[in-house]
What we know:
By secondary structure, this protein is an all-alpha fold. It is built from 13 helices and no strands. Helix 2 (25-49) packs across helix 12, helix 7 (146-177) packs parallel to helix 13 and helix 9 packs antiparallel against helix 13 (304-333).
Amino acid sequence: MLFLFKLIFILIILFNINIEILKNLPIILPILLAVAFFTVFERKILAAMQRRRGPNMVGIYGLLQAIADAVKLISKETLIPGASNIYIFIFSPIFTFLISMLCWSLIPFSYNIVVSDLNLGILFLFAFSSLGVYGIIMSGWSSNSKYSFLGSLRSSAQFISYEISMGLLLIPIVLISESFNLTQIVLSQSEIFYFIPFFPFFLLFLITALAETNRVPFDLPEAESELVSGYNVEYSSIGFTFFFLAEYSNIILMSSIIVILFLGGWLFPFNIFILSGALCFSVKLLFVMFFFVWIRATLPRYRYDQLMNLGWKIILPLSLGFTLLSIFLIILYI
């Protein structure tokens, strides 16, 4: 009887989740397509930088390789470890995927192209994005595997280390724009983009963004040579697909945040509003995404102690020092 109640509870949750997904299909479908083609984009660039062939067999110039990979992943057998907590094991990748999709509703692609233009948008955005680590913790614990659990613990420590610095780097942007609203932050850059006066913040934010999205050289939670793929080692088929989609969606999301905070969002340089819009936003987004791929092709992975030392002994003091200095200068200017 208890098992029946648990099953009904899980079905109700999944039904409500499906309803929310259907309501937000106009957001989710373009993001899923962007994630799919970003994987092809990444593999093509890596192949060009490493002087080898990338995807070139499926579709024209290999553009349909992402569709073939998705079909392959979904068609695999779903395996659930016998001693795992089955409910949390199934719920974890769904939770992680939904959190990554939810954050996109706050991103303004142009002046009127935004789902939820909240006054406290930047606070909601980072509050939601920080919840993603719980999905990773739950997946590592529920798998009943030492490798998965160790990978999830490393991931949580990494998130905490670099989210503190990322939060500090946001303070001068909020002060100078006098708003937590993402649209107003973009409009406040009509005269000059913030990466010029806040260039040290821009560089530090790029580094913390790499760590937040588990990208090279900070891809320690998924260090295959050390942890057998980390927290998602016990997942296959659709569970692994959800984690994969969430990870690449977060990469594009973090690139969008960088564009909004430092590169003027949809605004064109020199205050030329005629050329501004979603197309301008997309071009800037592609440049930031190219930077993520470029770093992956260039730098080796850090050791875990180097990762922690960089986060707590270098990035955090620099972020705190630059933030205090900028606050002092902003107060003098005002």
